[in-house]
Amino acid sequence: MLDVYTQIASIPIGYNHPALMKIMMNPHNLSSFVNRPALGMLPPRMFPEKLLDGLISVAPKGLKRVQTMACGSCSNENAYKAIFIWYRTKQRGHSNPTPEESATSVINQAPGCPDLSILSFMGGFHGRTLGCLSTTHTKAIQKLDVPSFDWPAAPFPKLRYPLAQYERENAQEEKRCLEEVEDLIVKWEKKGKPVAGIVIEPIQAEGGDNYASFDFFRKLRAIAKKHGSAFLVDEVQTGGGSTGLFWAHQHWGLDDPADMVTFSKKLLIGGYFYKDEFEPDKPMRIFNTWMGDPAKNMFLTEVLKVIREENLLEQVKRTGHVMLNGLYELQARYPHLLSKARGLGTFCAIDVKDEDTRNKLILKARNKGVVLGGCGNQSIRFRPALVFKEHHAQLFLNIFNDALADM
Amino acid sequence: MLDVYTQIASIPIGYNHPALMKIMMNPHNLSSFVNRPALGMLPPRMFPEKLLDGLISVAPKGLKRVQTMACGSCSNENAYKAIFIWYRTKQRGHSNPTPEESATSVINQAPGCPDLSILSFMGGFHGRTLGCLSTTHTKAIQKLDVPSFDWPAAPFPKLRYPLAQYERENAQEEKRCLEEVEDLIVKWEKKGKPVAGIVIEPIQAEGGDNYASFDFFRKLRAIAKKHGSAFLVDEVQTGGGSTGLFWAHQHWGLDDPADMVTFSKKLLIGGYFYKDEFEPDKPMRIFNTWMGDPAKNMFLTEVLKVIREENLLEQVKRTGHVMLNGLYELQARYPHLLSKARGLGTFCAIDVKDEDTRNKLILKARNKGVVLGGCGNQSIRFRPALVFKEHHAQLFLNIFNDALADM
Ligand code: FES
Questions:
Q1: What percent of the residues of chain A are helix, what percent strand, and what percent coil, each to the nearest 5?
Q2: Any catalytic annotation for residue A125?
Q3: Nearest chain B Cα to A111, which residue?
Q4: Among A163, A223, B119, B129, whose CB has the most other CB atoms within 10 angstroms?
Q5: Is A22 contained in some domain?
Q6: Do B145 and A87 lie within an 8 Å CB cutoff?
């Protein structure tokens, strides 16, 4: 099979990469796999050095600290917690709670458990545990029947394609959404549930591979700053190189860095990068049993080495070029079936006429040997590994063309 | 070092167990370690069979299904979600949402996101993601500044020791707590936030190794049934054999099984067992990218084999006997320092005069080569691996005695 979905975008450098097999076969590493430590309590010797060699070497601009976690959900959940702690510390001017705050926190009541909120976007996806789920707004089936925090959801720009043709309309749509963000911040402040942070994906992936302009994100960052809300970029799906840069939000060219960036999937472990001021004042405020997994971190460090040595970000740009051009051609050839081809690097997508046709097309492609995944209501998302080369892209396009011809 | 804490109770059969090393060195297993699948979407061939050999072989009485997860937090979060889905389906009499429910669910509003609650206990610990954290009531530092669901917390019995001496008082205390549970269920129903489920640990671990009688739990189970709330037993710390039975709640002798049992730590992966009626009606309602980890599951299956082959549950009973008797002796020898020695199997604890003395004692023991962990305000919890034998217990008691003599 030619895998263009890679376990929901979570296989960074393909299956059975020799560099990773070597890690596994090195007898020195055996005990790291067999004995998983409680990383927050008893980190293995040299773990800080390993983070410097690995995660810290790809820290987004302006963020010098990293907190490891085990998956995308605990990464976002704990990033939200760090935001709430930061926000309350800022509000009260120090980090020493009153006796009332301490007492009420244990019984789920204010002021110890304050009414704070995280603002997110319609179509956004940030995970499915109860905190994350309150910022996820993709499909009803993911949220139905589950209690939610009363947190605000702003509209995400609905851009018209091709982008070049609708520049003015799209700029207006983005302006409308940004105004709505500010309105919601004011409204939730008045409700007594101030927006402590804003969370957004650089490309809404699960929601349908929805894009906004780099300018939109820069302005959103400025709005967060203006209202004293933290700005959290969720790179769980976009991070790790598939957009042609290691972090998708690097494309924006922010002058003022994001406050936090969460990651998982292609990075094999989870976690978040953060500014110094988001370090809680006391140990154990952000904590759990495992706090990640040194075995996965070992793989990650090797993956980062392979990305550098094999120049995979350049590879992604070249392959992405072939893929996106191929998708443009296919949508010109099958205008009754396809529209809105879009992408950054190999992080590409295309819309299919309707949900039913989309699902049939994915099945047809699978039966011809290509694994694809859907997103949103009628999109297909392409998520090859970073080692996907031009000839793989060509092969994929040919088979996809055959599947389309069959429809 | 002699480890009597085992990475917060998460190392089941000691470090570098030969059976686990063998799994690692088997070339057939390499690719399971290197290629982590999206288990909910593309389970590896034979995965169901592997579950039958492994997890299902230790399913608690009455529960035939299991859902794998990756840690204790996502286990509880998803168990809560399955409870909410079950409860709403029961309320509306079917699982087809109205258009209004579908539409409101995506924007965090009722009726799609209903006001339901989970009842938990003071001193209970169920994790630190935002849903779990709303059922955790141990230390302020774990909850301070983080928004919480308005969910009820019932008192957990505060028993007097030695138990045999205070039977009448303790029975009264448990009665008081159970009455309070019923009052809270009625109160939260009136508030419009019905109690969809009750969650409890068989022994409150992080909260201080707090016990209640088996009778208390049986009555609590009946109360849950009476009010139509699901009964969830959190065995994240107690599960896996250290109480002398594989599941601590087996000690209760429930006629009517629990509805759900969550696990992680010593089981190396996470997840929950559940009754048929807690299976959501549609796929993807309980879902995330990884949904556990087949590599960890492979270790678990081997651990279960070792537990059976080496008769480790019997070993735990024997060692636990030595440990608890030793602790009784030490508390008789150092009555000014120690009290309330208690335990089931090797899952033992003792109280120290005060928090400061407790912390000093743990440090002293560590400097003499024994790793211990605290819990609650002034307790030490003992959490050896299942391979901890009588002579290890004796060694630990001797060193602990030396540390005490030094105080
Ligand atoms: S919540 Fe991330 S691994 Fe469990």
A1: 45, 15, 40
A2: yes
A3: B145
A4: B129
A5: no
A6: yes
pLDDT attached to residue B290: 97
Tell me, yes or no, whether B188 and B295 share the same domain. yes
Cβ atoms of B43 and B283 within 8 Å: the answer is no
Specify the pLDDT at position A376: 95
Task: Round to whole Å and give the CA distance between A23 and B42.
Answer: 25
pLDDT of residue B45: 87
| CA A292 – ligand 1 centroid, Å | 9
Same domain, A286 and A320: no
A226 and A332: one domain?
A: no
- Cβ of B269 closer than 6 Å to ligand 1, yes or no, is no
Backbone angles phi, psi at A270, to 5 degrees: -125, 180
- Suggest the residue from A5, A145, A195, A289 to mutate for an interface test with chain B (most B CBs closer than 10 A): A145
Query: Residue B22: inside a domain, yes or no?
Result: no
Asked whether residue A320 falls in the same domain as residue A302, the answer is: no
| Number of separate domains in chain A | 2
Q: What does the pLDDT look like over B234-290, one tens digit per residue?
A: 999 999 999 999 999 999 999 999 999 999 999 999 999 999 999 999 999 999 999
Task: Judge whether A53 is closer than 8 Å to chain B, CB to CB.
Answer: no
- Whether residues A129 and B74 touch (CB distance < 8 A) is answered with yes
| Same domain? B43 vs B139 | yes
Per the structure, the complete domain to which residue B99 belongs is given by 36-308
- Strand order of the β-sheet with A338-344 is A338-344, A347-352, A379-382, A373-375
pLDDT interval class at A81 (50, 70, 90): very high
A212 and A344 fall within a common domain: no
Q: How many Cβ contacts (< 8 angstroms) between chains A and B?
A: 272
Task: Name the domain boundary from B308, B324, B345.
Answer: B308
Domain boundary among A257, A276, A308: A308
- Residue A20: C-alpha distances to residues A317, B26, B402 (Å): 24, 16, 47
